[in-house]
Design brief:
One of its GO terms (biological process) is cobalamin biosynthetic process. The protein is mainly alpha-helical. It has helices at 31-49, 56-77, 86-102, 116-141, 147-167, 180-189; strands at residues 17-19, 25-27. Helix content is 61%, strand content 3%.
Length: 190
């Protein structure tokens, strides 16, 4: 693995390249760098979500997720290296099962809205999906392990579920899309 940063303003990227963890220089516009950047952005958005009042179990889970995203970024920074473990994916699967069991069945699509914490969880969901798309594109160009793609896919699902959970913390609910179908169903049952 490359050297740990001891100085931030190195000026080595002034020519439009950056160093990977194996000391290889690549364009800052490469798919690998885009993927790493989007994982980093996702981690920052989760950090912002953690500034909100969220239940302790969600806080603990998201703290673990931040560490796993750092592992995922490390894996992406070293071609061929595997850092993300199967236990990280299992943790997301368990959390999905746990939190989904608490929620009522969806009646319709929901809007990315509600309270601040839920809305921020939706931002995390969309950034996770973008990161996943970039990892898929990178995997189409270069050999990648399955774990980064799978982790981002599961994490996006979890952020959707957590948004629903967080909207209920103070007795709130999902913000449903006002679709024609749902409106007609509600009118016919009234």
């Amino acid at each position: 693995m490359g050297n740990r940063l001891t100085e931030i303003a190195t000026r080595t990227g002034d020519n439009g390249t950056t160093g990977l963890g194996n000391n290889q220089r690549v364009s800052k516009n490469s798919l690998r760098i885009h993927a790493m950047g989007e994982v980093d952005e996702l981690n920052a958005h989760i950090g912002l979500l953690l500034c909100e009042a969220v239940p302790q179990d969600v806080r603990d889970l998201l703290g673990d997720v931040q560490h796993q995203l750092f592992n995922l970024g490390g894996e992406l920074s070293i071609p061929g290296y595997q850092l993300l473990q199967a236990s990280a994916l299992a943790q997301l699967d368990e959390a999905l099962a746990h939190y989904n069991a608490m929620l009522p069945r969806l009646l319709e699509f929901i809007l990315p809205a509600g309270n601040r914490a839920a809305s921020q969880a939706h931002v995390c969901r969309t950034v996770a999906r973008r990161a996943e798309r970039t990892v898929v594109a990178l995997g189409n160009e270069e050999s990648l392990h399955d774990a980064p793609r799978q982790y981002l896919n599961r994490l996006s699902d979890l952020m959707f579920v957590l948004a629903r959970v967080l909207n209920r913390v103070d007795g709130g609910d999902d913000v449903y899309w006002r679709s024609v179908r749902l409106t007609q169903q509600q009118e016919s049952t009234a």
